[in-house]
Amino acid sequence: MRIRCPYCGERDNGEFTYLGDAGGARPDGMGTDAAAMHDYVYLRDNRAGVHRELWYHGAGCRSWLVVTRDTRTHEISDVTSAREAGLARRNSGTTSGEAA
Amino acid sequence: MSTLTLKRAETQAPLARSDNPAQPFRVAGGLVDRTRPLSFRFDGRALTGFPGDTLASALLANGVRLVGRSFKYHRPRGILSAGSEEPNAIVELRTGARREPNTRATVAELYDGLEASSQNRWPSLAFDALGVNALAAPIFAAGFYYKTFMWPAAFWEKLYEPMIRRAAGLGRAANAPDPDHYDRMFAHCDVLVIGGGPAGLSAALAAGRMGARVILVDEDSRPGGRLLAERREIDGRPAADWAAQALAELASMPEVRILPRTTLFGVYDHGSYGAVERVSDHLAVPPAHTPRQRLWRIAAKRAVLAAGAIERPHVFGGNDRPGVMLAGAVRTYLNRFGVLPGKRIAVLTSSDDGWRTAADVLAAGGTVAAVIDTRPSVPAELRRPVEAAGGRVLTGSFVSGTKGHLALSAIEVSDASGRFDQIACDCLAMANGWNPIVHLDSHLSRRPVWREDIHAFVPGTLPSGMTAAGSAAGDFALADCLSGGARAGQEAAATCGFDGAAAPAPQTDPESVSHTPLWRAPRTKGKAFADFQNDVAVSDIELAHREGFRAVELLKRYTTLGMATDQGKTSNLAGLSIMAELTGQPIPSVGTTVFRPPYTPIAIGAFAGHHRGKEFRATRHVPSHAWAEENGCVFVETGLWLRPAYFPRKGEADWMESVNREVDTVRAKVGVCDVTTLGKVDIQGKDALAFIERVTANPFGTLAIGKARYAILLREDGFVLDDGTVARMSDSHYVMTCSTANAARVMQHLEYARQWLWPELDVQIVSISEQWAQYAVAGPRARDTLKGVIDPGFDISNEAFPFLACADVTVGGGIPARLFRISFSGELAYEIAVPAAYGDAAWRAIMAAGTPYGITAYGSEALSVMRIEKGHAAGAEINGQTTARDIGLGGMLAKKKDYVGRLMKERAALTDPQRPILVGFKPVDASQRLRAGSHFLGVGETPSLAADQGYLTSVAYSPSLKSWIGIGLIRGGTERHGERVRAYDPVRGGDVEVEICSPVFVDPKEEKLRV
């Protein structure tokens, strides 16, 4: 696979590490209960289809990226820096799961 | 049926039989260099060939037809094909450490001194004792290993499996390390052209002329494909000349790279391709500094698949006898290599294409014994030349059997009426149509589709960016290959932004590609093979059908059809077509199995490249490495790092004596240890503190400028990720350290927190692990030592620079340095960091400054002993399964802030008072040795999982206590000080009574580090 890093351009996937579902925002640990945190930590979408997921460009610019990939075809339709995706999520007041 | 014109290329001289007694089957013509004979050996027999030969063509030139024994039945086998699809002629090539099993003789280029031997035969190829397996064939039918060798069960491991493995070998790997090296290359291009035949050359020319960056890969030593193998004309000239001219033009284009001897073995996502270049396989030994093979990873915007097609064998009894060959291969040997594979050649054809073989043999002065066409009628212009030369023509007929001891001597021909005839011949050429090579376009889980008009599978939906051209797309005619290739190349370059129109396609002599395949002989005698390499016969497919293994994937696994090293290149369709007939379905309804990379077998060495032995991964040296080497240091590998383990001195008997001396010196005087391997992270910004508060589990809000503090990092699931320190250098500047092993992981975790969890924080982080050399100076004389290193003017007295202080200082007259008063050993200790380039000098300065105080260098062993004496947790305790509470740090955790892991660590199971907790252990008998990993049992208790109370995580011999000591996790440990348990270690025969105690063995009141 090749991933188009917004900072480094299209790079071989050997430079990246996969984390998983770029799902819901982390609940505030002071303002939530353990059940919500448990869901955040353990419940992950595993879609056959378009999936937003986190990749780390560790052998490049060290950016975390939100990659939108179809898990059936590996087609990548979007790559955004996780920081920008995270800021947009904050500003819109939604979780990234809802944004997807 | 359309007509076929067989027009000889006028420019080619008539072929005449050579009178070369050494190579009795060599005839005139071909592309071999006859001026320079090459010597080689096959099974010890001295033979000759010419440059340009393959091992197979040279063997045929010498009249060697028996080349190997089959996998299961040890049947005699010869050469079927002239390419990488070869299932039969697989040999061991070379000797000694370079011995390579399973090499296809059809692609092994001949070189002077080549040594090859046949495989899977004993004692000799001509007399193979295991040939009796053929008599026991009923036992070896499909699924035999599930049936025959089931009882008694105990026999499987001891008798059956070793026996089967010995009998069914496919050559022997070398038993010495590979003496050659392998290289790896990355390449990028606009248009990747896969295959250098007529379609591929046309595509490369079209794209290259438009200025695109083109990579042309071809598995042959000489690109050209069938152009080198056929007597065809392009623009009135021999096809091979056109190929040579096309290659010359491509070679002159600066943006075109031609990779011959290169197999494109895999297609991966997003335009990634894998290829292996056999750089030196055609030489006896690679030249100096030249790799044996090179692995290419190619990123291409577009690809033109011009991989060509593979001819289909006919399926009839005895179709595996040496001398039975593919008709196109016979033409290759004749036209390219100047070798006539038989004295009397018969042709079995279901296509007009097969008649071309008869015409070429006649043109070379050979004898065509007969042409058997399975179709009912044949145009007169095809029959006439054969009949004129005295050959028989039988239409509506098929071959029903073969005769010959170790090679073909006659064929049996039948027709629908039951007429039966026997024809003497030593070579039978089979032409049953061609299969486009659909392997590569199927690699991304795509399925080929059936095209009824050509009776073959062709590429279905192609991977993004790929187009197919020529035979690979099912367009078999030469004119279509040339025009289709040019069109594909032009279109591919155009989509990459290059302009230009394709040149008009060259003219070719006319041809017909008409064929009506015969999937198997209607009646036959003897075993009729579908898969030659795995010995799968029609009877096996019939058995699979009878027993219900009819789905294509079941058929494959039950019979092993298509599962040999050739991935069924010549056998898959034969198997599918027979199953289709048995089940009464059309072929496409049977379906196809999945093709996976690699297209042909690839040596593991090519994938490993330079990464073998000590070069498997990079080796990292600490800044004091040179000094350590000069002083006889013993190193230990920890991850990529080569860390000093201990520094033996003259007269010390063993490592323990050296380590004890290092520990004693630190505790009594002073020592220095290279701790550069620790992860170091620079954290700066307005929100640096807020960031640190969220990633650490203990509070930092009160950390003053110029102060450092121990730090615990949790994972979000509540377990400990790592530990380290955080030092506040200024208002908004912090330096974090973490453990050596977790340095990369912690950095990734911090970036995750900064970029994804809390992107709104104004903070920047960067790893400075490589930039700073860091040394721990520890012991009662540490301050005295450092006074000789740090530039005057900075006060490091206990009052001015107390425990946990940190500061920017200078050394060596103005070199920036950082000083931290932190201690892992429990002694008065500092860590001093200098820019890495000054690391060696700083180390030597510390050693010099400490000499009056009796300084010792100490390594990771002494470091570990001292941390165990102090009860500090390290990798053995922070193992991903422990919480902060488990390792005795529960009391340090912050209550008034949110941080990663805060809520999850509170789960009931993680706060259960019965959860094992970190305490210390001393053997009751101080002379007894403890072993890490020993499990704790009650004294006198019978060992069982239920009785298990925990285990020893770390042990050391403590020179301070003159006893072995340990720390470990045990249930309710904190309340059990003074209690005795057993440290039980059945693996190493250990069973030691130990007393539970505080994990802090030395200076529990922490007085030494504050003086």
How would you characterize the largest beta sheet of chain A? Answer: 4 strands, antiparallel
Please work out how many helical segments of chain A DSSP would assign: 3
Distance between the termini of chain A: 23 Å
Let me know the CATH homologous superfamily of the domain at 182-310 and 436-495 in chain B: FAD/NAD(P)-binding domain
- By secondary-structure content and strand pairing, the structural class of chain A works out as alpha+beta
The dominant shape of chain B is elongated
Q: CATH homologous superfamily of chain A - what is it?
A: Folate-binding superfamily
Features:
heterodimer; A: alpha+beta; Folate-binding fold; two-stranded antiparallel sheet; 3 helices; globular; disordered C terminus; B: 1011 residues; FAD/NAD(P)-binding domain; Gyrase A, domain 2; 50 strands; 26% strand; elongated; disordered N terminus; Sarcosine oxidase subunit delta (chain A); SoxD_sf (chain A)
Overview of the structural elements:
The complex is a heterodimer of chains A (about 100) and B (about 1000). Chain A is an alpha+beta fold. Chain A contains three helices and six strands; from the N terminus they run βββαβββαα. Chain A has helices spanning about 35-40, 80-90, 95-100, and strands at about 1-5, 10, 15-20, 50-55, 65-70, 75-80. Chain A is globular and about 40 Å long. Mean pLDDT of chain A is about 90; it is low at about 95-100. Chain B is α+β, with helices and mostly antiparallel strands and about 1000 residues long. Among the domains of chain B are: about 180-310 and about 435-495, FAD/NAD(P)-binding domain, CATH 3.50.50.60; about 520-585, Arc Repressor Mutant, subunit A (Orthogonal Bundle), CATH 1.10.10; about 620-675 and about 770-865, Gyrase A, domain 2, CATH 3.30.1360.120; about 680-765, Aminomethyltransferase beta-barrel domains (Alpha-Beta Plaits, 2-Layer Sandwich); about 910-1010, Elongation Factor Tu (Ef-tu), domain 3 (Beta Barrel), CATH 2.40.30. Chain B is about 20% helix and about 25% strand. In chain B, helix 4 packs parallel to helix 5. The longest helix of chain B is centred in the middle third of the chain and has 18 residues, at about 480-495. The radius of gyration of chain B is 38 Å and the shape is elongated. The model of chain B is unreliable at about 1-20 (pLDDT under 50).
